[in-house]
């Protein structure tokens, strides 16, 4: 029991470190910052399961709130969580949870890697999109200075602006990252570390 808890704590700490390091990995793609954080957050759900993955993300967020430079581009502090980016950071909790809800053996090993990767990509899409459940309302609130129930036209334009700023520009990169996670998990991690993965799922 104690050994298992130590193993879980170590694995959680490892992913907290990966979240922090990956926040510094950015690639400029069509003038949109391509960060690796969501890749490791989805992997944490697949490897650790939903509960430990959520614990890892919340621990990482706590470190950031306390001022450690663990967020994108070395940011840290409560101000970032209260900024337009805050909804995305909090949304990572949902991302980790939804990535970890599927059993690791859901896709049969006898399937070809291509089929498993394709199916895993579809299974992970709700996880990638779940971050926007919190991120978009939060972003709209930041843009408009609060929530309001204005006339339909004004409300529509408000949400239209939010989607064009905080969702549409990221569709392509989100899909790419989802495919990367699915491919990495199904062709490398699941095959080589199946015994390790079974301890958490």
UniProtKB/TrEMBL annotation:
So where does this one cross the membrane? 12-30, 36-53, 60-82, 88-107, 119-143, 163-185
How is this protein situated with respect to the membrane? Multi-pass membrane protein
Places the protein is found: Cell membrane
**Pfam families xref list:** BioY
GO cellular component annotations of the record: plasma membrane
Q: What GO terms are given for molecular function? A: biotin transmembrane transporter activity
UniProt keyword list: Cell membrane, Membrane, Transmembrane, Transmembrane helix, Transport
- In which family does this protein belong, per the annotation? Belongs to the BioY family.
Mind telling me what this protein is named? Answer: Biotin transporter
Organism annotation: Entomospira nematocerorum
């Amino acid at each position: 029991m104690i050994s298992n808890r130590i193993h879980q704590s170590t694995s959680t700490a490892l992913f907290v470190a990966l979240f922090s390091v990956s926040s510094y990995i950015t690639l400029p793609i069509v003038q949109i910052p391509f960060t690796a954080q969501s890749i490791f957050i989805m992997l944490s759900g697949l490897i650790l399961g939903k509960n430990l993955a959520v614990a890892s993300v919340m621990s990482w967020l706590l470190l950031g709130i306390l001022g450690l430079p663990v967020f994108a581009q070395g940011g840290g502090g409560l101000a970032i969580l209260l900024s337009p980016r805050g909804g995305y950071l909090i949304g990572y909790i949902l991302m980790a949870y939804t990535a970890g809800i599927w059993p690791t053996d859901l896709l049969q090993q006898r399937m070809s890697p291509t089929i498993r990767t394709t199916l895993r990509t579809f299974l992970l899409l709700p996880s990638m999109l779940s971050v926007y459940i919190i991120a978009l309302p939060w972003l709209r609130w930041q843009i408009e200075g609060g929530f309001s129930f204005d006339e339909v036209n004004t409300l529509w334009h408000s949400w239209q602006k939010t989607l064009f700023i905080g969702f549409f520009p990221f569709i392509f990169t989100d899909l790419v990252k989802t495919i990367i996670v699915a491919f990495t998990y199904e062709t490398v991690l699941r095959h080589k570390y199946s015994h390790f993965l079974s301890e958490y799922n």
